[in-house]
């Protein structure tokens, strides 16, 4: 990892922030990836590759559009929680990605292949992810470490959990034989234990799709109905460097008189690695539950190779002869809004259990696993010799170092998956906690002579990492966890294809049905606007309820006929008939008024451009003002 010049401190030292609310560092960061961040390398709708950093200070709700523009154009967004209202930062983050990180420090949000990536923590943790390589008054280049193997999808996120400089202080000598007052502690980890885990999140909305079969009912469902959060950690899915206690085991004498009378120690090793994902609910009435966990209980020395597939249903199929791959539609493709299609989301989970038993400890709203070596339960197996006695001149270590491999103390990466399900109608928020810890251990050997031979004794000592302390305050602050908030009302949980509705009547321009970006909170004006390459021009068509749903904000704005004026607006979705539409022959037609369609207000001049109102007009004798559309898979 490369070092950086810390953003906030450097900015303050250079007095840049004194008169500006936002400071943009126009340092030209070199992208490691040459892969396009949308559907196709040749797609004209690909986001621009402006890799500069937007430093945000004192954020307000109204700044959403500015941050959205920066983020969707692949700029890094740095949130300073200490200078902004955390609730505002969470709100903006949830609008962009469907989730937010609960922190009291700093968060860096950026894209890797169009997937939002959250890294949070203090400056020492964050500085490993950005390289400015400059004082801020000169233009130099830097790089952001990226992963070239990440899938392209707007409904994915990566959350990184980092903790460094951890200790594992344990007894250096077992003193109950001759040194009963010996309480000397040794930090076997030298203050350098660490953990880095990348949690891959899939946020999916699904509709139930049935197929005919020979069952009693005549059909069965091939996809479920609901909203799903799938959390995966796996070495095959860019899981991070994992747990590291030390570069090598410490093996030395704590006291030495003769070969027949001595004490030694061996450590550190992880007797148990622990991982959990907890759903936090203040009421059982909240319709979010743990649905599935993997792996189950597995014995030592097993190899697990499994591709975990999850099938989900969408409204909107491909029109024409183009098809899908596992990642969705390929290229710029037309969408048949009346069709349904099902996808499969896949994650590879591959690992060896080595000398650990994998124990699934999940219950109700908690997904939990431990990798348990059970060293303390079988101490005799870790003696160097086959017997607990030896000759006085024997200089063998008491504990057998060959019983341990690097997996016990360096670069241990787990593999697990949990699926949480919310009802399709649920639009609230829930918090999740990702937590990890280790029960670290060391073996303490004692060689004690008698008249004819020496006795070999082996004892254990242990400590949790992190050491939590006694008080609740200490425990809460020292836990290694990441808390996130999932906004189940986000468009990422919609069970419709993301589409853009391009006008087919404008020969020389690229115009789309658009929600005015200043009106996306509760009620918005709908216009025809030039390509903006953002979500104000992204829609989904619910072919069960005949609704066009805007992706511009929370998933609660529907294309609507305004009462009395017949103007076209976007307002919160209900089951009202003025929000129901069909799409036929390129026209957007009210479901119950087949002789009308969306068009321009004939009383307004074409020179008004994007300010022209859209109205519901009669199809007959209004060909000039009717607007025909084509539907395409959206890039945003």
Can you tell me about this structure?
The chain has 3 domains: 1-152, no CATH class; 153-205 and 225-311 and 349-493, Distorted Sandwich (Leukocidin-like), CATH 2.70.240.20; 498-633, Trefoil (Acidic Fibroblast Growth Factor, subunit A) (Trefoil), CATH 2.80.10. The two termini are 31 Å apart. Helices cover 6% and strands 44% of the residues. Strands 1, 3, 4, 6, 7, 9, 12, 15, 16, 19 and 27 form an 11-stranded mixed sheet that branches. Strands 5, 17, 18, 24, 25, 26, 28, 29 and 30 form a 9-stranded antiparallel sheet that branches. Strands 32-33-37-36 form a 4-stranded antiparallel sheet, with no helix packed on it. It is built from 5 helices and 42 strands. The protein is elongated. By secondary structure, the chain is mainly beta. The model is unreliable at 1-50, 131-154 and 318-333 (pLDDT under 50).
Query: How much strand content do the residues show?
Result: 35-45%
Mean pLDDT across all amino acids: 78
Report how far apart the termini are.
31 Å
What is the highest CATH level, the class of the largest domain?
Answer: Mainly Beta
- The unreliable regions are 1-50, 131-154, 318-333
The CATH superfamily of the largest domain is known as Leukocidin/Hemolysin toxin, cytolysin domain
- CATH topology name of the largest domain: Leukocidin-like
Oligomer: single chain
Total separate domains: 3
Largest sheet: 11 strands, mixed
Number of strands: 42
Q: What is the number of helices?
A: 5
Overall spatial form: elongated
Structural class: mainly beta
State Rg: 30 Å
Helical proportion, percent range = under 10%
CATH architecture of the largest domain: Distorted Sandwich
């Amino acid at each position: 990892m490369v070092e950086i010049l810390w953003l906030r401190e450097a900015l303050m030292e250079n007095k840049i922030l004194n008169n500006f609310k936002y400071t943009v560092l126009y340092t030209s960061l070199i992208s490691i990836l040459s892969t396009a961040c949308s559907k196709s390398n040749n797609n004209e709708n690909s986001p621009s590759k402006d890799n500069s950093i937007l430093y945000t200070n004192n954020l307000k709700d109204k700044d959403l559009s500015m941050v959205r523009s920066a983020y969707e154009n692949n700029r890094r967004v740095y949130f300073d929680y200490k200078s902004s209202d955390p609730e505002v930062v969470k709100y903006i983050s949830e609008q962009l990605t469907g989730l937010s990180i609960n922190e009291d420090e700093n968060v860096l949000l950026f894209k890797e292949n169009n997937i939002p990536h959250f890294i949070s923590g203090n400056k020492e943790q964050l500085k490993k992810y950005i390289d400015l390589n400059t004082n801020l008054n000169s233009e130099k280049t830097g790089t952001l470490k990226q992963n070239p193997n990440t899938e392209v999808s707007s409904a994915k996120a990566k959350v990184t959990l980092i903790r460094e400089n951890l200790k594992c202080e344990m007894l250096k000598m077992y003193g109950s034989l001759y040194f009963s007052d010996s309480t000397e502690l040794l930090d076997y980890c030298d203050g350098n234990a660490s953990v880095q885990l990348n949690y891959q999140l899939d946020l999916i909305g699904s509709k139930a799709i049935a197929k005919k079969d020979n069952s009693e009912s005549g059909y069965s469902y091939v996809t479920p109905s609901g909203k799903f959060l799938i959390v995966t950690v796996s070495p095959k899915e860019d899981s991070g460097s994992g747990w590291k206690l030390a570069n090598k085991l410490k093996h030395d004498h704590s006291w030495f008189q003769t070969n027949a009378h001595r004490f030694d120690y061996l450590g550190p090793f992880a007797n148990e690695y622990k991982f959990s994902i907890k759903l936090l609910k203040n009421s059982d009435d909240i319709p979010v539950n743990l649905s599935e966990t993997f792996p189950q209980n597995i014995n030592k020395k097993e190899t697990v190779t499994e591709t975990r597939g999850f099938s989900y249903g969408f409204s909107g199929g491909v029109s024409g002869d183009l098809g899908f791959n596992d990642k969705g539609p390929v290229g710029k493709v037309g969408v048949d809004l009346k069709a349904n299609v099902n996808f499969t989301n896949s994650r590879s989970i591959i690992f060896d259990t080595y000398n650990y038993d994998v124990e699934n400890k999940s219950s109700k709203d908690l997904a939990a696993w431990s990798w348990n070596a059970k060293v303390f339960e079988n101490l005799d197996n870790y003696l160097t010799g086959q017997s607990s006695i030896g000759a006085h001149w024997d200089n063998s270590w008491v504990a057998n170092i060959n019983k341990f491999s690097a997996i016990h103390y360096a670069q241990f990466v787990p593999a697990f998956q949990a699926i949480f399900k919310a009802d399709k109608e649920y639009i609230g928020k829930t918090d999740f906690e990702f937590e990890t810890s280790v029960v670290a251990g060391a073996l303490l050997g004692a060689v004690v002579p008698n008249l004819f031979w020496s006795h070999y004794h082996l004892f254990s000592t242990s400590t949790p990492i992190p050491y939590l302390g006694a008080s609740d305050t200490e425990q809460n602050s020292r836990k290694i966890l990441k808390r996130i908030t999932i906004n189940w009302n986000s468009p990422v949980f919609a069970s419709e294809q993301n589409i853009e509705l391009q006008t087919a009547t404008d020969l020389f321009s690229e115009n789309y049905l658009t929600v005015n970006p200043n009106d996306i909170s509760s009620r918005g004006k709908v216009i025809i606007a030039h390509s903006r390459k953002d979500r104000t021009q992204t829609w989904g068509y619910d072919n069960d309820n005949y609704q066009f749903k805007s992706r511009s904000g929370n998933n609660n704005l529907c294309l609507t006929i305004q009462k009395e004026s017949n103007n076209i607006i976007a307002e919160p979705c209900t089951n009202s008939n003025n929000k129901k539409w069909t799409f036929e022959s390129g026209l957007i037609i009210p479901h119950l008024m087949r002789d009308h369609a969306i068009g321009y207000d004939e009383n307004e001049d074409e020179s008004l451009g994007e300010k022209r109102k859209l109205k519901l007009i009669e199809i007959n004798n209004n060909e000039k003002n009717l607007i025909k559309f084509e539907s395409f898979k959206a890039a945003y």
